[in-house]
Design brief:
By secondary structure, this protein is mainly alpha-helical. Helix content is about 80%, strand content about 0%. The model has no long low-confidence stretch (mean pLDDT about 85).
Length: about 425
């Protein structure tokens, strides 16, 4: 009866178009009252526990860093370096788009930021060079999703927080899948545009691009080198990346003003102001569910129904792909990761590997209707129709699904560098 009432309350809140923070708060309060100790003050204590994590500070720092670089010239100069090297290839500009997204993703950690920073530059350039509108939209929209697979990744940080998994190990585990995705998408871009004319290498242009882009190229080297060498924690790396981007954009490139920094800080604060209560309330709910052993009960139920590891992995991927169609990645990770983790461990799936599988699945969710967040961002940025962009990303989704299956069934792809 109590579960039926809770379901009715959730449906009512959805009908009333309440946001996820309000829904999670009501659900957490209801479960505390009915299934817990009935002390609502525990929600506040749990929220404090969620906030009292050093890695949590990395979220606003990476978001702000990405915003600063989007306003400045780092992205544009990185693109110019890559473009100067790929111009002799047929379809070279399409490869430039994918590689630029991959490199920028290694700095920003955000899919929408990567899409906007690279897409706003590359989409007009692709059209100008004779690429079809459908392909150009598909390439920039799909390439933007690399921002959440290639570390540092904001969703991986969230997964690490809610499951108490090492964020550094998650970052390391995302390297090979991220590179594999980049290679596959770049290969398709070459094949699909193999008949387009290419340009010869221009050594003068390459030299000029490297000279003007040297400070931009140092950014991912400092950031990722510091994390993987153990010299920086993820939070320290985020702070270093932010400091570096501000110094370079203000005093070297000189394309960002103090007013731009102020506006960026305000918008980032507003964004994080909506994210923080979401994470804190979800953490409170997760703590209560763990106390009531709900994840363990789910794990026991799943192992009694599915006795095959491969079938569990396939079922897990199908579930996450469906969830990705209707739920944003942050909500999906906060709600599902703590519940799915015990079941995955029961089937021999390591927590770090599960994190990579979740992020890869939900990455595809950025491209699938009806939510398709990257499609919505692209639709707004490029003033194109939703279904035109959706058709453009279909070949890329098929390739990403192939990589997902490979990474899911062969754990060493993501775990090789971790071990």
């Amino acid at each position: 009866m109590s579960l039926l009432l809770l379901s009715a309350i959730i449906v009512l809140l959805l009908v009333l178009r309440q946001n996820l923070v309000a829904i999670l708060m009501v659900v957490a309060a209801y479960i505390h009252l009915v299934y817990g100790d009935g002390v609502l003050e525990y929600i506040i204590e749990d929220m404090y526990i969620a906030a009292d994590k050093e890695v949590f500070l990395a979220l606003p720092l990476f978001i702000l860093c990405g915003s600063v670089m989007t306003r400045g010239a780092i992205a544009e100069r990185l693109i110019e370096v890559i473009k100067s090297l790929t111009s002799p290839l047929p379809g070279g500009l399409a490869v430039t788009t994918i590689l630029s997204c991959a490199v920028f993703a290694a700095i920003s950690g955000s899919s929408p930021v990567t899409l906007l920073a690279i897409g706003t530059i590359m989409y007009p350039a692709l059209l100008k060079e004779g690429y079809s509108k459908k392909f150009a939209l598909g390439a920039v929209t799909s390439g933007g999703t690399l921002g959440i697979v290639i570390p540092p990744s904001i969703p991986m940080i969230l997964y690490g927080i809610v499951t108490e998994t090492s964020v550094v190990e998650l970052f390391i585990a995302g390297v090979i899948p991220g590179i594999l995705l980049t290679i596959v998408l770049s290969g398709y871009s070459l094949f699909a545009n193999r008949r387009l004319p290419s340009k010869p290498w221009d050594l003068v242009r390459i030299k000029s691009a490297f000279r003007s882009g040297i400070w931009s190229m140092l950014m991912p080297i400092i950031l990722l080198g510091g994390i993987y060498s153990g010299f920086f924690t993820p939070t320290e790396a985020a702070a270093v990346a932010l400091f570096y981007s501000i110094v370079i954009e203000l005093f070297v490139h000189k394309e960002v003003t103090l007013k731009d920094l102020y506006d960026t800080a305000v918008s980032t604060t507003q964004m994080f102001g909506t994210l923080f209560p979401l994470v804190a309330i979800a953490m409170s709910l997760n703590i209560l569910l763990a106390t009531q052993q709900v994840p363990d009960m789910v794990a026991n139920w799943m192992t009694s129904v599915v006795d095959n590891r491969i079938m569990f992995i396939l079922g897990l991927n199908i579930l996450l792909l469906i969830v990705g169609c209707f739920m944003d990645i942050i909500s999906a990770i906060l709600i599902l990761a703590p519940v799915l983790l015990p079941a995955a461990v029961a089937y021999g799936i390591e927590p770090v590997h599960l994190g990579v599988i979740m992020v890869l699945n939900l990455e595809i969710g950025f491209l699938t209707p009806p939510v398709g967040f990257n499609i919505i961002v692209a639709m707004t940025a490029f003033k194109e129709k939703f279904w035109l962009i959706a058709r453009g990303v279909l070949p890329f989704i098929a390739l990403m699904l192939a990589v997902l299956v490979f990474v899911s069934l062969v754990p060493s792809v993501s775990m090789f560098l971790v071990r």
